Structures are given as C-alpha cells and as structure tokens.
Amino acid sequence: MEITYRVDKDILYIAIDGRIDASNAGAAEEQIFAIRNENPGKHTVIDADKLAYISSAGLRVILRLRKAEPKLAIINVAADVYEVFDMTGFTDMVTVEKAYPRMSVEGCEFIAKGANGAVYRYDDETIIKTYFAKDALPEIKQERENARRAFILGINTAIPYGIVRVGDLYGTITELLNAVSVTKLIRQNTEDMSLAAKYYIDMLKSIHVIKVEDGEVPDMKETALAWANFVAPHLPEDQAKKLRALVEAVPKQNTLMHGDYHTNNIMVQNGEPLLIDMDTLCMGHPVFELGSMFNAFIGYSELDHQVTMNFFGYPHEAAEKFWDMSLKLYLGTEDDAVCQAVAEKAMIIGYTRMLRRAIRRPHEAESPAKIARCKEMLGILLNKVDTLVF
Asked: How far is residue 63's CA from residue 286's CA, in Å, rounded to a whole number?
C-alpha cells in the first residue's frame, strides 16, 4: 500500500495505491489523518483509482474518516471495489463515484486542439476530447450541461454521452458519424473556402438568433469590461478612459454566443454543421464574439504565423482570407469599407484581451513583443473608433 496526496485549491486529494486490509489498515488511517492535519480546512476526496482491494478493516478506516469529514467523497472506484462499498451500504452514506472507462488515443486521427483540450477521431462513429487539466471533471460536467442547454435552445450540437480516462487525463466521448471539421475542409482546399465559410457562418447565425435569460450563461460585457480595467494602468490615461467608455456603452444584449468560435469547434455531418466545444457559452453583443474570432484567425498569430499552422494546420494567409470571407458573410455585404469598420471594432476587443493575456504571462519570451503590438494597435484603433456597436 502507498498513500500520496495533492492539493487543488480547497480540495485535498488522497490517493491510495494497492490494498487496505487488516495488516495495514492502522497504518493507512494514521497516514490519512496525518495528511489531513497537515492541510487543515481542505475538503477531503479519496482517489481510489489504484485501490485494488479493501477489507472490512479498511472500510472502518473510511467510516472513521467519514465521521471527521461529513462531505467525504471517493472517486475513481473500480467495479469490484465499488461492489464492496455498495453491498456494505457505504454508497448510502458517502459519495462514491465509479471509475471511468479507460481509452487510448494512440494512433487516432488528430482533429484539433483548443485552449482546454485536444480532439481525436476514435473510429468512424466517435470522437474523443481529452482535457489538458488533470482535474477537469467539473469543467467536463459544466460543458456537458452547456451542450444539453444549447441543444434544448435549438443549436445543432453534439452532446458528449460519456466520460473516459485517457492516461492520467479525463476525456469525453461523442458520437459523430463520419463527421469532418471545418478546419479539415479548409486544409483540403485553401483556394476555395466558400463552402467551409458557409458552414461556419450558418452555424454562427443560428446561435446569434437565440435569446437567453439573465444568469443563464455569463455576460460577456462584464468580462470585457474586466479586461479593459485590467489593462487600463498600462495605457495612456486618455486611451484607457476611452476604452472603458466604449465597452461600458455597449448595450446589454441577451444574445447567445459561443465565446470561442473558430473552425476547430465546428464539425460537418451529413451536410450540417455541429458544435463540439461548449464550455465557453455566454451572452452579449456580437462584437464580443467577433473579437474572439479575430484573435483566433489573426491576432494570436500576427507576430508568428507558425502559430496558425500549429493550431489550425493551414497557413496564416488562409486564416486571413477566411476571416475576411466570414465577416462579409456574417454582415451580408461585400462592401470592404463596412466590413473594415466592423472589423476595427472587433479588433479593439481582441487586442484588449491579448494585452491582458500577455501582461499576465511575463515569463513567455514573446510577451514583450505582444504587449508592444497590442498597445500600438489599440492606440491607432481608439483614435478612429467611437462606438463598438454595429
């Protein structure tokens, strides 16, 4: 038997590896309570991922721990160990969660990577999204709830139907029969991206016609205002004042938005686009959505075009062209001046977000150049734009 632990925010995870029986139950109890005493005020969770066996003596250890920790939870419990907890009535007293099925993405087709995870095609019928954070269960459950809510609201989305373990990470499995990402469609033909752009904008428009209630999803205006307040001390006083005023003047809207709308997050199945990444659902004026889109296609890779290739697998020039095509489709006009005016509004949001991000990551080698670029562009744009509304 080996007992280890880790702390994540206010949760103390105690992992048990091996067996707990009459021969070592006393030592196990002593170690567990010693760890709890070293980490006062933390909510205790027993990680039973590698717990192979537990006897009645081990159950009494859990019972005494339960008395000391009324909200005790036991996670990642193997089927045969879970049966012991269930038969003895522990599942009525303690939150006991079964272990999730283990799967491997080795040799699977890589589809895309986002901020929170990577997506792979497991077979012709299913895809798997693996999450980078080792403690991603709350995030996964929230995303599943968002997907369910989006589906009810009328968005054509793929709802993850199962949680799995991929190595030390968590993942979700989703049924998508022979679906292909919009990113892959672009990679297949960067000369003619019209069909990919149509799928992309058709889905975006279907999202933006939906209205949600206050509190149902986060309000993006509040988030953008927090960005503006964060970067304000790093800008000339007049620019900071105008930036905050522009964001504050955006009228409150209950328009549903995706929040991270780029081509990696849209699949096409039987001629219909579907969303596969729902953890960033929010509401607000579409300028905030467009700001995120600008960053994905241009902003984040403006100083290093290889970033586009690493993220999307197609050239930066294709991303620039796709951004232009998408904006025209979304606005329903070929007028370059109209599109440029809206793009500049979105760019203010995009550069504000990027500036905040770069300031918060001073250890990254490219941060000084990004900070300088964002400040330069905000100075130019704030001198030209008098409203973010379109």
From this structure: 53
| Region of residue 198 (left: phi > 0; alpha: psi -120 to 50; beta: else) | alpha
pLDDT, tens digit (0-9, with 9 covering 90-100), for 166-211: 998 999 998 887 889 999 999 999 999 999 999 999 999 999 999 9
* Distance, CA of 240 to CA of 357 (rounded, Å): 17
Residue 384 burial (CB < 10 Å; 0-12/13-18/19+)?
exposed
CA distance 385 to 243: 10
d(C-alpha 266, C-alpha 271), whole Å: 12
Q: What is the rounded CA–CA span in Å between residue 316 and residue 304? A: 9
C-alpha–C-alpha distance, residues 66 and 118, integer Å? 37
Contacts of 252 (CB under 8 A, 6+ apart): 219, 221, 284
Domain positions in the chain? 2-98, 109-175, 180-384
Top CATH class of 109-175 equals alpha beta
User: Which is the CATH superfamily of the domain at 2-98?
Assistant: STAS domain (3.30.750.24)
CB atoms within 10 A of CB 88: 15
Same fold, 2-98 and 180-384: no
Say how many Å lie between the first and final Cα of the chain, rounded.
64
Quick one: how far is CA 257 from the chain centroid?
14
Q: Looking at beta carbons, which pairs linking 352-359 to residues 24 or more positions away fall under 8 Å?
A: 352/224, 352/227, 352/228, 352/231, 352/243, 352/291, 352/378, 353/224, 353/227, 353/291, 353/292, 353/295, 354/295, 354/299, 354/300, 355/231, 355/234, 356/227, 356/230, 356/231, 359/230, 359/231, 359/234
Contact 239, 352 (CB under 8 A): no
Superfamily of domain 180-384: Aminoglycoside phosphotransferase (APH), C-terminal lobe (3.90.1200.10)
pTM: predicted TM-score of the whole model, two decimal places: 0.78
pLDDT, position 277? 83
Contact indicator for 249, 387 with CB cutoff of 8 Å:
yes
pLDDT of residue 350: 98
Q: Please name the residues in contact with 141: beta carbons below 8 A apart, sequence gap of 6 or more.
A: none
